[in-house]
Amino acid sequence: MSEICSLYGPGFAGYIYHMRALRQAALIAALLFSIAEGRSQCPPNLGFEEGSFNHWKCYTSAYDPSDSTEKAVPPIANRHALLKNTGSALDFYGGFPVNCPNGSTYSIKLGNEDVGAQSERVSYTFTIPAGQDVFSLIYNYAVVFEDPGHPMQEQPRFTAKVFDVAANSYLSCSSFDYAAASNLPGFQQASGNVYFKPWSQVTVKLVGYAGKTIRLDFTTYDCSRGGHFGYAYLDIEEDCSSPIKGNTWCPGMNSVDLTAPFGFKEYYWYDSAFNSQLGTGNTIKFSPPPSPGTKYALKLIPYPGSGCIDTLYTTIAYATDPFDFQLQDSVVACTPGPLDITAPELKQGSTPGMQYSYYLDAAQKERVPLPADIRRQGVYYIKASNSIGCNLVKPIKAVLM
Q1: In what order do the strands lie in the sheet with 391-400?
Q2: d(CA 149, CA 153)
Q3: pTM > 0.70
Q4: Burial (CB count within 10 angstroms: exposed 0-12, middle 13-18, buried 19+), residue 186
Q5: Which of 161, 47, 43, 42 is closest to 100 using CA atoms?
Q6: Residues 6 or more apart from 394 whose CB is under 8 A from it?
Q7: How far is CA 62 from the centre of its chain?
Q8: pLDDT digits 0-9 by tens, 264-321
Q9: Of 46, 225, 311, 352, which residue is 20 to 30 A from 300 by alpha carbon distance?
Q10: What is the spatial distance between Cα 329 and Cα 263, in angstroms, rounded to a whole number?
Q11: Separation in Å, CA 227 to CA 70, 221, 224, 233, 375
């Protein structure tokens, strides 16, 4: 005890100060660890951003329900097409961009307009990090089908499945099957019997699979009778962090917007003890930001046949990274435009190095297809994000004079 007194001074004041400093350092280290863990990196080239099919495998087969034999092949240009984002190419039938409007450089087109009972698949196999018990990813897809009115198992279709390699089985709650039908939610009629669904997002959340090897399978099918086509566009977000986004806030932010995984029918937000329901919808705003360490729970209700009921949890964190998102209230151009809401001058004064995404709605469900080529006036929404996970959404009014 005398050694401690001589080291830190009388009354242990120095000793107490030292121990507080150690505890504070430990808390900061834990916070930084949790933030770093929350922004986990995806496996390499998951989103095709290397401009290739590196780490992916390509397959072709005949769509025959009685024969699932597939043939591994090099990428075939008109069946596994890598598409560089030019900002202008549109799908012939749906009129939507062939590249995902998430700002990525590359997307792919799987399948084509040819018939003949063809099928195409791409797959990606990876091992979830040993310490990551909750792993999530977001894929974006758009689909074009003919609907010949065959029995469901013979229709053109697009499937997105997650395969547990060790268990040798697909995960039912993370696998989806989109078969052609005129009454499918989100689909629109192009002409005749051709239907399309523009770019949409789905979140895949895997819990309890740390250290396990997983395979992603994306497959398109023509109709099995050989007379009708089906194809899809695909892109995967290269962000495999927490399935609930926006739980980190930075200096200068006066609110926190939590964004839930995409692709569910209903969303119910609660405090961590489920004593009080706080909101519904895929986003929820807290102003001012909650204290660091505050926990929330989210109950997810899927569409029928599209997954399982699930509950997620998230914890609010605070980071000291600078964050200042400045955005003009409106942008004006002469009719018929275009207006460019990606223009840097609209965000002048914002913190450098932030990333921006553009939406048609405040809930961030629908991305703006061509944000640099706006030809319809109205209110659009821009989300600014930094590398630590802080983000903020602001509206901007597009006016055509």
Answers
A1: 330-333, 391-400, 378-385, 355-359
A2: 11
A3: yes
A4: exposed
A5: 47
A6: 325, 327, 381, 382, 384
A7: 31
A8: 889 999 999 999 999 999 899 999 999 999 999 999 998 776 667 888 899 999 998 8
A9: 46
A10: 30
A11: 20, 12, 8, 21, 37
